[in-house]
């Protein structure tokens, strides 16, 4: 039965790719949304990238119009943002217990499409290097299994999720949300709402340190409570971590949505997701210095 399902899914994917169902993002009017000036306290800020696992996938699965013959390297990672004496993680990548979580909660027919090569968890990397700062909290871009896998590795930390995402987590199950990762009563959830303060054209935001260095914005669409994170660093770099709004940078460069089957499987609201992508594209046109980091495109992780 499992084998038949895999064959059916594979054939459907190949057929859909051959048919090349278009996924053009409808452009919005070029906007004049400028990033605010680099805040002076960005002197306090730096960003570290943690690579926790890899996977390979045909390009066609990641972006509309991608090649079925070209395999690309993807990443599961986490970001550590440091602001003076404080630090926080943005997502966790794959954690210490990912194998048992995956075995317990990933539906069997999806296992061949979702497999990964495990590297070192964030916890292991922090333990191996005592000079690295310890995070005081974890902020989730969204609650999909490959972003939250490591939260139980840090039982002492508050886990920040938007109210909308927390409600979504209570309604959803595998393959999006893994009970093995989020159902422990010991997890210290800290729910929050964004306020109606515009940041670079995103109407709902939260300025984490009240100084413009690290700002959360709503990217509702991929999941109801998805957020993005702007970070301004001491080197003058301006990052925008966009979670899973796109999987592949080509989606932004070529104005393409995810491959339609992938989008059907993972985007809770495809229209809203594509509207967010159109907004990000317009923002980059107005602010070419902005470095966009999708959660899984390895090319953006340096
Ligand atoms: Zn996701």
In brief:
With 302 residues, the protein is of the alpha/beta class. It has helices at 2-19, 59-62, 98-105, 111-114, 122-128, 145-148, 163-171, 179-182, 250-253, 260-266, 270-286, and strands spanning 45-58, 71-83, 86-90, 117-118, 137-139, 158-162, 188-192, 205-207, 214-218, 227-232, 238-241, 290-293. The protein contains eleven helices and twelve strands.
Can you walk through the features of this model?
The protein has helices at 2-19, 59-62, 98-105, 111-114, 122-128, 145-148, 163-171, 179-182, 250-253, 260-266, 270-286; strands at 45-58, 71-83, 86-90, 117-118, 137-139, 158-162, 188-192, 205-207, 214-218, 227-232, 238-241, 290-293. The protein is an alpha/beta fold. The protein has one domain: 4-Layer Sandwich (Metallo-beta-lactamase, Chain A). Strands 4-1-2-3-5-6-7 form a 7-stranded mixed beta sheet. Strands 8-9-10-11-12 form a 5-stranded mixed beta sheet, with no helix packed on it. A hairpin with a 6-residue loop joins strand 8 and strand 9. It is globular. The mean pLDDT is 90. Bound molecules: zinc ion. Zinc ion binds at residues 142, 144, 222, 244, 266.
Which helices and strands appear, and what pairs or packs with what?
Elements: H1 2-19, E1 45-58, H2 59-62, E2 71-83, E3 86-90, H3 98-105, H4 111-114, E4 117-118, H5 122-128, E5 137-139, H6 145-148, E6 158-162, H7 163-171, H8 179-182, E7 188-192, E8 205-207, E9 214-218, E10 227-232, E11 238-241, H9 250-253, H10 260-266, H11 270-286, E12 290-293
Parallel strand pairs: 3-5, 5-6, 6-7, 11-12
Antiparallel strand pairs: 1-2, 1-4, 2-3, 8-9, 9-10, 10-11
Bound molecules: zinc ion.
Zinc ion is lined by residues 142, 144, 222, 244, 266.
